[in-house]
Amino acid sequence: MEPPAQLTQRNRVIGLLVAVALLALTCVASLAVGTENVSLPTVWHAVTDYHDVGDQWIVHDLRIPRTVLALLVGLALGLSGTLIQAVGRNPLADSEILGINSGAALFVVSAIAFLGMTGIWTYIWFAFAGALFAMLLVYLVGMTGRATVTPVRVLLAGVAIGAVMDGVGYAVRLRNPQAFNNMRFWDAGALDARPLEVAAAIAPFIAVGAVLCLVVGRSLNITALGDDLAKSMGGNVARTQILSLIAVTLLAGAATAGAGPIGFVGLMVPHAVRRFTGPDWRWILAYATAVAPALLLAADIVGRVIIRPAELPAGIVTAFLGAPVLIWLIRKRGADRS
Amino acid sequence: MTITQNDTAGVTFGRRQCVIRIGNVSARASWRAIIVVAALLVGAFVIAVIAVGLGKYTVAPADVLGVLTGSNTSFDRVVILEWRMPRMLMALLIGSALGISGAIFQALTRNALGSPDIIGVTSGAYTGALIVIAGIGGGYYAVAAGALIGGLVTAVLVYALSYRNGLAGFRLIVVGIAVSAVVNSVNQWIIIKIDLHTAVTASVWQQGTLSGQSWSQVLPMTVCLVVMAAILVAMGPQLPVLQMGDDAAGALGVQPDRARLAYLVVGVGLVALACAAAGPISFVALAAPQIARRLTASPGVGLVPSAVMGAVLLLVSDVIAQQVFSGSELPVGVVTVSLGGAYLIYLLISQARQR
Amino acid sequence: MTSAESGHPVTGQRDSRLSADHLSIGYEDTAVIADLSVEVLDGRITAIVGPNACGKSTLLRGFARLLKPSGGQVILDGHDIGSLHTKEVARRLGLLPQTSIAPEGITVADLVSRGRFPHQKVLRQWSGSDDEAVAEAMRCTGVTELSGRLVDELSGGQRQRVWVAMVLAQQTPLVLLDEPTTYLDIAHQVELLDLFAMLNREQDRTVVAVLHDLNHACRYADQIIAMKSGSIVAQGDPKSVITEELVEAVYGLKCQIIDDPQTGTPLVVPRASPHVRART
Questions:
Q1: ipTM of this model?
Q2: pTM above 0.90, yes or no
């Protein structure tokens, strides 16, 4: 299958550079725009030569941690969503829809409520455990057994398992009203009021996840052809699946631990970039690295601005952005019966 | 090809059937299904009789029966008939509604995990309830009305967005997921904005609770349920025919899109009703049809067994919710969520065995 | 030619209950068949043949009322088929679709009995005639001894016969078949077609089948409708329709036509390429 003539290597590289430039722009916007806009020179000073003068503290204390967190979480969500779609051969999935974020969230909430763990360095491990747990459940319920595996069947399994996780999580929260109060904001997917320490805690795991993406990148194209065909072409399907599983656990777990469950970023990004990359998963991953953080940052910025002076959490904005995209995607598929 | 002579006109169904013919009227059902439904009904009655006597003021089952037959006119009457009986009846009625609704959705989506939740009705009902609880303020009926409207509006929205030259199960599911996500975000937003106390109250409603049910709720619920049931009976056995695919169904005289829409309306109506009455109660709609199916060993989900199973499930859950922590009461939805978890594990095991 | 305006059964067409009149069917903006008119002969076997995507399945499904025409109409018993009640149509016209779903855990008898749906009413769920129809249908297709077995456990050939039994239980004078022999091995293919030949002769049922095997069509059909790109290229009895020129025009296949040694009908023998000749 030849990609259209325009998708030459050169064009793809140019596109990637444009995406990176867009990312840089959104970063700057994220530092400058908010309930109070900060002028660009002030931003520059705050970043390069910080003095507690004028509005610089807004940039230094609030916006830089927020931007860094959004970058990391966006990256993690984009990469994990891409992996899930590639390995799962399911264009309708990401870590939120399949209940993986819900699993991570449940374990985190339980750790906080029952074990009193309030530091991210401790409850992040529960996030990984929860993500892995949910993923295994979805796999077992949605992809095994005699009935045919279709994207919709996996989706239903993810929704059902996500619902159980959410339900139990709710019950856990109700037992401890103070925990409930703290968690309401985190539940909506919030990037604000999280110290830089949080970003520092999740960064190493996201880095490992990203490296794993690099490792499996090439084999994704072959795996996407189906188990039998992939094996006959020399691909190691089991290895790709296991590495991807680990990567998604780390990425989705870290993202959820850092900013709460945020959906649709992982779902939208692969589809958005495919027009520029073609079906090559390596390029989709590369573009996702730049586009996903930019998308989350943009959502966060919109959330800051749209109901000034109050703020809309990023998770809510991504839902409002992503749901129409999902609906448009499914209407486009036409007579495709899954 | 061998041609076997079959002298009797009767057909072997593999499972013994019960055929009733009176004049021109006839009906057929498998004996096993009839026995299972009867057993469930008896079981529900027994559980109700025992459970209605539990609590701070205990009444022995014999005395309960006495109250029901009218021979016992002591204070027991007040406790049983005025305080506790309405709640039991509501559990049975709401459970039936959820069971039927779940069966309809699983048949329409041809998937054992299809449930009314996916179409966003429950999320929308929560929105409606939140708006009433947090904004307008109001008692039981105001919240119920809000939930009903919210649920129905969301369902209509999902239907409209997924309709494209007809109604396809998979499109409905995906659009339902997307719309639910948006509606859930709205709910999260409201939860953030309101004060903590109201938020906790709203969250308790969201879990689904049967406390505070009285006779004034039983009558409207019964009427609505009877109406829905009548519609389903009038529609005839189109649901099993739809199961065979649109082409086969069309060839047999069913109009697939129209039939699906009709069933969808009834299914949504039932679950919106349940939400309005007691908040969104999870997993009864998911588990009841499948458990009923396995018990009756029938192909595909059956409406009557699912209804009865749903009634029993919710009744048992409510009894557990009331009795498990002596002194305080759990929202029944917490119990059903645990039930849902257990059910999913059961599903895992049975699917793993199939490999 | 149409009767929609007059509302009376059309005269002069006594030997054709089912026909298409300037029929056009399309999806979205593309027309799959356009302005197509053809009559199906009563009490005969009609085969619709043609290359992939020529519209033959679409035509059959249009006949079965599964697709709505964008132009023209399908006429059944002198009325526009769209104006008749669906259950009424289902009592006159049965269809064996290409793909059907057997619900999990259903027994053979259960599945066949679903064919009685068009005859059932709310209060008349299982009358004596239902029993007889199902028993007869299973006898005809030879699946009576499989009656209590699960459909999931049957072989492909057996399963197809069960679906045919379901269509037969419907007791319709017209039967439409959409590629009924796909997924069957050669013995079962012949067996199935022999069954329909028997039903046509002994029960005078009109059979319309989309067949992908030309030789089967020649052997079994009284009338062949050859289609290409959404229109009818030729129609008539096999001997006059299936010629070497037509096969080349419709399928792009060079062939030689001889008389079938068993039945005398046309037998299509593709011309051997040099590679194949070199092997013998």
A1: 0.83
A2: no
